Amino acid sequence: MNILVINCGSSSLKYQLIKMENEAVLAKGLVERIGIEGSILTHKAKGDKFVQEEPMKDHKDAIKLVLEALIDENHGVIKSMDEISAVGHRVVHGGEKYSKSVIVNDEVMKELEACAKLAPLHNPANIIGINACKTLMPNTPMVVVFDTAFHQTMPEKAYMYALPYEFYKEHQIRKYGFHGTSHKYVSQKAAEAMGKDIKDLKMVTCHIGNGSSCTAVDGGKSVDTSMGFTPLDGLVMGTRSGSLDPAVVTYLMKELNCSPDEVNDILNKKSGLIGISGLSSDFRDIKQAAWDGNERAKLAVDMLTYRIEQYIGSYAVAMKGLDCIVFTAGVGENDFYSRGIVCRDLEFMGVKIDEEVNKATVGDFAELSTKDSKVKVFVIPTNEELMIAKETLDLIQK
């Protein structure tokens, strides 16, 4: 049984075709510059890479090109679209309505439209992708998997903001959390690695990349997470500020005569690592500059690792214990330097890692903790596409 996973951005589309019997990726690829001059498809299958430049005015054109690539007699991997059992779509925001994945129907599409105002940069593109697939594959089941769903188990005291209560009731202003598919996947893998039932474990999963978040996973359920009403809250990120005093927003508006959109642009695109360092949003560049003696780059590294440590510590308190820490995503999986700083600073909590194993781990699964460490520490490569495919398969089989 083959599941096609689709992840639509505003002008891009990532995809994977996964054979579920052995969880093998038959093909994967990326479509870029949709609706922009220079549209391009990069398709990888059978160990080869195929690149096609062709105008694509919208996501329907892009998905049509993807499907043609999958069945092409030279670089395709299936004979017809009938071999695709279902399509799983990543959707960023499901609001409070959805705490799990659902099969697409008219009611679901209406709810996605209603949630678009909560994720204006992501949900509209996700919706376009779903509609395009429905048009091109009308008889194929469609499933939506929400980034926010995993966090719907948070208690009220964790997701509520201390604003007038009617803002929550009338405008749905609360913490939602994101990266849920990734946090769910790596927490399950950590439990498997420990040989324990996830219901008996307390862990903090650290998804550290250009966008970053930490989640407290207690008994397999998210009980708190660092991202909030939007993905801007929480950790220092590539271009996002993370948590700050809300009064900074109004202060900037008054002092710099900025509009709300201009402040939003500053906080989302000009802050974080690039704002502090003045160099780059890429942690690899920041780390190298810090090693070369750049004080602002060193400050950016210190701020990121300090914030990660704060969340791990506070979540250990929230869960009244800590069995495991997981690092994942681009920086978490590949950067020994930041992992080492965080773990050394947490030695007072019983965290001990093998420094040589840490330095040697780049993009692969590894247990970093020593045998006498009270807290297990893992690097676990995330696989959101496989998680989406699994949830899609589970739903269509039911």
From TrEMBL:
PROSITE patterns: ACETATE_KINASE_1. Its cofactor is Mg(2+); Mn(2+). The active site is at residue 147. Coiled coil: none annotated. SUPFAM superfamilies: Actin-like ATPase domain (SSF53067). Keywords: ATP-binding, Cytoplasm, Kinase, Magnesium, Metal-binding, Nucleotide-binding, Transferase. Pathway: Metabolic intermediate biosynthesis; acetyl-CoA biosynthesis; acetyl-CoA from acetate: step 1/2. Mg(2+). Can also accept Mn(2+). Belongs to the acetokinase family. Homodimer. HAMAP family: Acetate_kinase. Catalyzes the formation of acetyl phosphate from acetate and ATP. Can also catalyze the reverse reaction. This is Acetate kinase.
